[in-house]
Structure formats: structure tokens, C-alpha cells
Amino acid sequence: PMPMEMMHVADYSQEVSLAEASANMSFDSIQKLVFVMVGVMLMSYCAVSPRTLPVVEYNMRFKENLQIVSLVLIAPMITSISVFDAKESDINHAISTFTSTFTLGYIMCFVCEIVWTTILRLGVFLIWEPAIFKLTPSVPMAVLPWVLRENKYRPKRITLFAADFATSCVAAPVIEEYIKLKLVQLGGRLPRNYRKVKKKKERDKSKKSKAKKKRKRYALEKIERAPGEAEVTNVNVFVTQMLAASVGIKLCDSVRRILMYTKRTDASKSFYAFARGVFPIHELCGTMTAIELAKRDLLGVDLPLWRILLPAVFIHGMANFRGMKPLFKWNSSTPWSEMQLSPWNVADDSTLGQMVSKGLAKLMWLIILGRVLGYCIKNYYLVKRQAIKRTTTYAGKQAAFSAELAAADYLKKTKKKGMGNQD
Predict the structure, then answer these.
(1) 3 state SS for the chain
(2) How far apart are CA 177 and CA 196, in angstroms?
(3) pLDDT at 37 (0 to 100)
(4) Alpha carbon of 221 to those of 229, 234, 289, 358: distances in Å?
(5) What are the φ and ψ backbone dihedral angles of 61, each rounded to 5 degrees?
(6) CA-CA distance, 184 to 176, in Å (whole number)?
(7) Per residue in 130-164, pLDDT tens?
(8) Bond before 140 cis per omega within 30 degrees
(9) pLDDT score at 20
(10) How much is the average pLDDT of 404-417?
(11) Which position has the higher pLDDT, 219 or 316?
């Protein structure tokens, strides 16, 4: 009886949370959502193929596109609703973050990836394929990496692999995760106990050959609060904001790719749209960044920017290495490769050994994603407990609290090292 009562209480609290969120939604937030919906409808209308259809059939295809696109919303909506807590997070701030990344964030990521891809490809060509530059000046340097096929130039495989790895698995994940984080931070809606400030530190005076200079470095500083003002223990707002940013970029990219897969010859359109919504890379990466950011801003753990982004960039890079397309790759001749899935009714000429090999690779990738999900859930509640403990058990004892965090981290590393030695 007791577990059933607890389940009913949890369901009731979730319903109350959603009801509170809906009641608190402002007119400005509704306008932003309507703007996104209108944009999706315009893209769906323009994506009808072929364009020469009669008006009646064209409108029917337009409605089909809308139905297909709506399937990509199912999984992100369920995820967002399950994470959102109206008592700790503001739905209007979440909607604002979502719309900003859906529009401005996507454009910024796309432009930055185009620029850095051009630079990195030129650098790789300079190292492995200097003969490519003989095409200039008839071909402008800025467009040279993008028109090799048109100029009938075939680079070496190692050159193509190095260029693709540097752009898709390193630069693109860094850009996307960095822009998501910066848009959330620039919104100024994250509560903090600590902030980063610049401190000046003199260089070593024993070096007489160099003039005395001062260099600036960042350090964490505790935010002074008014008497009676409680310190922040809310972790949910970090995850909610980063999840909204991740879903915004993901849905914009997914809607675009789904609407480029609308020809009559394209099979299993509905399954493709639903599967793209379920594929959780952006959500997992955003959650990992939120947890690392909460450790710094709530607990006072001095983490540099690269350390905050590292877990998300690593998983995002692994996903891109397995076939997930970065934003700058406008179209894909094999759309199913992104999710490492294929519909059952698609013909497959693989042998038994090849199917077993592919199946094991997909199983290992699924296990990795499951472990990442477990890491996110575990550390979410761990950081939340630590934030509460910091304001209760260790109130006014930051040195003791930092020592406990260091000891817990050391024990975790020792435990992992011991398990590795046993293996």
C-alpha cells in the first residue's frame, strides 16, 4: 500500500507542477512558441516535393509534413516535462532559452562551424595535400575546401579522414556545446553562490631579464548575500536551462533534416522523424554540462571552462564519429547512419557475420549511452545533496566542505583504480 500511495503522491505533485507552470506562462512566452510553430509550418510548406503538384495535392502533402514533423517532438517533450520542476525553475525562462537556441543559437553554430571547418580543412590540406593549392587563384581560397569534387580533385583517404575528424569530431562538438552554454549564461537566469572574478598576480621577480609584469587570472569568489538571504541549493534550474538550450538546437536541426527527407522515394518517414526525436545526444551533453556548471557555481569547485565542457564534448565527438552529422553538413545521403538504426523493411545484403558485428557495435554504443544517462541521474542528486549539506552541516565552513569534496573525489578515483587493477 505504501509504494502505491507514494506513486500517487508523485503523480499528483507532477500534475501540480505542470499546472503551476502553465498558469505562470506569460504572453511573451506564448508569442515565442507561436513564432517557432509558424516557422516550422512555413518550412513544412516549402518542403513539399515536388513543387509542381496541384494545389489540392500540395496542401495534402503539406499536412503530411506537419504530421511527420510533430513526431520528432514526442521524446524531447517527455524528457523536458520529466525534468522540469515548477517549484525550482521558471517556465518562461526555459521557453526563452529554447527559442533563442532554436533561432539565434542554431545560426551561430552553423556559421561558426562553416568558418572553422574552412580553416581546419585548409590546415590539413597544407600538411598532407599542398598540391590542392595549385587550384588557386582560379578558385578562391575561402571556397577551396568545398569545391574539390567540382574541380575533379580527389584527396588521399588519410587527408579526408584527418580533415573530417578535426571538423566533425573536435571543432563541431566544441562549438555547439560552447554556444549552448554561453547562451544560457548570457541569459543571466542561473542562480549562483560563486562567481568568477579577475585577480592579478605578479610574475616571478627573480627573472631580472624581464620587466615586472602582471598577469590576470580568474578565481572563484563567494557572492555576499544580505542578512537572512538563503544561499542557492537549486540544481534543477541548471539542468532545465541547459536542456532547453539543447532541445532548441536539436529540434531546429532535426526539423530541417526531416523536411529534406520528404520525397516519394524516401521510405519510413514517420519512423525516421520519431527516431530522430528519441536520439538523446544533445540532451545528455547538455545535462552533463549543467552538472559541471552547478558544481562550480553552487559548490565552489574551481573548474575551468574546458573542464566544464569536456564530458559533453567527448560524448558529442563520439556520436559524430559514429555517424551523427554536425550542423554544417547540410544534407546526408544516408540519414539513418546518424542514429545507427534502419527500418525493418529496408533490404539488407549483409552476411550473418556482418550483422553480428554491426549488432555488437550498436549494443556497445547503447551501453555507453545508458552509462552516460546513469551518470547524469546519479550526479544530479549527488550535487543537490552536496549543495544542501553545504548550507546546513557545513554552513560557514567552506574549507571543511572543500576538504570533504576532495576526499570524496579521491576515494572515487581510488575505487576505480582498484577495480581496474582487479580486472
Answers:
(1) CHHHHHHHHHHHHHHHHHHHHHHCCCHHHHHHHHHHHHHHHHHHHHCCCCCCCCHHHHHHHHHHHHHHHHHCCHHHHHHHHHHCCCCCCCHHHHHHHHHHHHHHHHHHHHHHHHHHHHHHHHHHHHHHCHHHHHHCCCCCHHHHHHCCCCCCCCCCHHHHHHHHHHHHHHHHHHHHHHHHHHHHHHCCCCCCCEEEEEEEEECCCCCCCCCCCEEEEEEEEECCCCCCCCCCCCCHHHHHHHHHHHHHHHHHHHHHHHHCCCCCCCCCHHHHHHHHHHCCHHHHHHHHHHHHHHHHHCCCCCCCHHHHHHHHHHHHHHHHHCCCCCCCCCCCCCHHHHCCCCCCCCCCCCCHHHHHHHHHHHHHHHHHHHHHHHHHHHHHHHHHHHHHHHHCCCCCCHHHHHHHHHHHHHHHHHHHHHHHHHC
(2) 20
(3) 95
(4) 17, 19, 21, 50
(5) -65, -35
(6) 13
(7) 888 888 888 888 898 998 888 888 888 999 999 99
(8) no
(9) 65
(10) 70
(11) 316
Mean pLDDT for all residues in the chain:
84
* Percent with pLDDT over 70 in the chain: 83
With CA atoms as reference, report the closest residue to 249 among 317, 297, 305, 177: 177
Which class for 356: exposed (0-12), middle (13-18), buried (19 or more C-beta within 10 A)?
A: exposed
pLDDT for 9: 41
Residues in the chain: 423
Place of cell 544530479: 380
The closest of 101, 385, 345 to 233, measured between CA atoms, is: 385
What Rg, from alpha-carbon coordinates, does the chain have? 25
Grid coordinates representing 61?
A: 502533402
